[in-house]
Amino acid sequence: MSSKHFSSNNSNFPDSPNMKAWISGVFFTFLIAFLxxxxxxxxxxxxxxxxxxxxxxxxxxRQAFGYPSNIRTGITFSSKHLLRAAIILYxxxxxxxxxLSDGIGLLVxxxxxxxxxxxxxxxxxxxxxxxxxxxxxxGVGTGICGAAAIAAVAPIIKAKDEDTAIGVGIIALMGxxxxxxxxxxxPFLPIxxxxxxxxxxxxxxxxAHVALAGAPAGExxxxxxLLAKLGRVFLLIPVCFIFIVLTKRxxxxxxxxxxxxxxxWFLLGFIAMSILGSYVLGPVISIPAGLxxxxxxxxxxxxxxxxxxxxxxxxxxxxxERAMLPLAAMTIVSIALSVLTYFII
Length: 345
Known about the structure:
By secondary structure, the protein is mainly α. 73% of the residues lie in helices and 0% in strands. It is built from 15 helices and no strands. It has helices spanning 19-39, 50-65, 72-90, 96-102, 104-128, 132-143, 147-153, 161-185, 193-203, 207-214, 218-234, 236-252, 266-279, 289-311, 316-344. α4 crosses α5, α5 packs across α11 (218-234) and α6 (132-143) crosses α7 (147-153). It is globular.
């Protein structure tokens, strides 16, 4: 492969001769994102969701047709910059005021959940001799907020695009399995709607999974489920900064100058959007519900297109060789987390 394919990877935007390839690459990621959206409407795939369906299509495209190197610049832009834009917009989903005023007690429990998920997954990964980066990403996704957490932490620990895509795909799939399992178990559990809602929000992976599984608990149960989940999303901020400190300390002991990390400035955007959504939009400036829903949809599409770009880097051979053991570790931790949180709610 010619080195020309890689010449623009170090810049944020392509020069004029490569503009067509850049636009085509970005369009290609949105095209597969759209196919994922359509697939998610089909029976049997509707519980998986658009993002996981799009990643599946991207991975199989890579295996069948190879990586589209001629539009690499646009695909790289989607996987890097659209991903960061999506995380920034994701901050609007976090209402800091609600978390701090009504969820302080839940925050303490959420801290325990995150520590258990991350540390437990890492320890099992060492025991199984599983891939460290994929296992760490899965632990973060399990403990905090799924794909968004994985995407936020990945650049800090310098995870490969392939590892990030594998982590997101696994977390989306397993989170869906757990959410459906909760719904099936709900009629047989000797707990009320409030306790059930608290359980789902404390233990499930994605915000979407919590909303799906919490719905049978009614409005009050679902509200508590989302509040518990918002606490875990809120803790994404300090967790990221902890990883920054730990990574810098690790790099200080390394002789490789290339191991230095850049500060993830998009986290400041995430914080700014959280503050904006919590204290300005709504309390001060009235925003139509339709506009906020449109922003939420845009966030989903940007994140899906970014995941497509990451999915195109996934090799099924590597997936089989490197993902099974981290998946096993994450599954055991997720089951243990569900059981433990059930008995402490």
